[in-house]
Design goal:
By secondary structure, the protein is an alpha+beta fold. The chain has helices at about 5-15, 25-45, 95-100, 110-115, 155, 160-170, 175-185, and strands at about 60-65, 65-75, 75-80, 90, 135, 140, 145-150, 195-200. Strand 1 (about 60-65) and strand 2 (about 65-75) form a beta hairpin.
Amino acid sequence: MGGLDKGEMASQMTVSAMNRLLPLGCRGLPGGIRAFIDEISAALQSPYGEAFSAGCTLTAVYFDDTRVMIVNLGDSRVYFKNRTLPLAQVTEDHSQAVWYMKHGVLTPEEAETHRSRNTLRRFVGAPDQEGRMPDVSKAMRVKRGDAFLLCSDGLSNMMTVSEMDAEISKEAGCAVICRELVSLALNRGADDNVTALMIRIY
């Protein structure tokens, strides 16, 4: 998180420990991911009880054989596409702007450009439990042709969903498509971290 002094450290700490979640399975993931986030968040706090000014978003697609669960905390996103439906966002941003939208203060269009869209209400490292509570989807079965796109807001702020859909629908490998998405966002003047990861089921 760019607004916090040690966001990079928080990200590295989170990613380096995520392999501990692999044995949980879909049944154990909801409780396991919450305990994991609590533990990481506690480690990011100052020993003097003050905020350590460290935090990060967390977005993950968890595979358990042919089943998938999606975890989200913050404003990075997961998009899903299959052979018959267009690309669609399947996570909800935990930003102040989205909170305003859900409570009728902003329209969806206003929330997309509101100054509070980068202010997070929930993230890894939040001092209170409510502020670090992740969204965990129900298990869904995947099949050949399904695709997931995970990305930071540096990408989603610079492209429409239809533009991303056009890119990931191309007959190219996932790495090639991600490089093209990142390049497009950077060429449009993205001023935030631009990260993309694509998974396609064969």
